[in-house]
Amino acid sequence: MIMPLFTKPEPLKRPRLGQGRVYQPVDNLFGILTEMERFPPRYWKHPVIIDYFFMFNRKKKKETLHAKKPDLDNVIKAVNDCLTKVGIIYDDNQIVGMHAYKMYDVEDYMVLRIYEAG
């Protein structure tokens, strides 16, 4: 399954403390969730491998690899949380392999490739 998501890759925000409780802010995940809702829920139940391609606006730079913030692992966490919330995968612990890349392009977007392992 190939999922093009036409929104800026955003990292998962850290948990916050407010009104005597700990909560996870989800305001930055709205764009990713909205884009993922275009795809029907699939609920992969088997182990999966995901290829992540995060593209960032180049802004007149000649580099191809994006070696700046946001951190790759935080962006992956945000995408994995959205995959489970929307129902593409059952739980993110079934991800047994991944390949992830941050690159520059003419606009901000993401492409996910999900396939069954084995």
**CATH topology-level name:** 60s Ribosomal Protein L30, Chain: A
CATH class: Alpha Beta
Strand content: 25-35%
For the record, the count of structural domains works out to: 1
The end-to-end distance, rounded to whole angstroms, is 15 Å
CATH homology-level superfamily: Holliday junction resolvase RusA
List the total number of helices: 2
Strand order of the largest sheet: 1-6-4-5
Main sheet record: 4 strands, mixed
**String of helices and strands:** EEEHEHEE
- Helix % is 10-25%
List the helices and strands and how they pair.
Blueprint: E1 2-5, E2 16-18, E3 21-23, H1 30-36, E4 48-57, H2 72-86, E5 95-105, E6 109-116
Parallel strand pairs: 4-5
Antiparallel strand pairs: 1-6, 2-3, 4-6
Structure description:
The protein has 118 residues and is an alpha+beta fold. It has a single domain, classed as 2-Layer Sandwich (60s Ribosomal Protein L30, Chain: A), CATH 3.30.1330.70. It is 19% helix and 33% strand. The chain is built from 2 helices and 6 strands, in the order βββαβαββ. The strands form 2 sheets. A 4-stranded mixed β-sheet has the order 1-6-4-5, covered by helices on one side. The longest helix has 15 residues. It starts with a strand and ends with a strand. The model has no long low-confidence stretch (mean pLDDT 87).
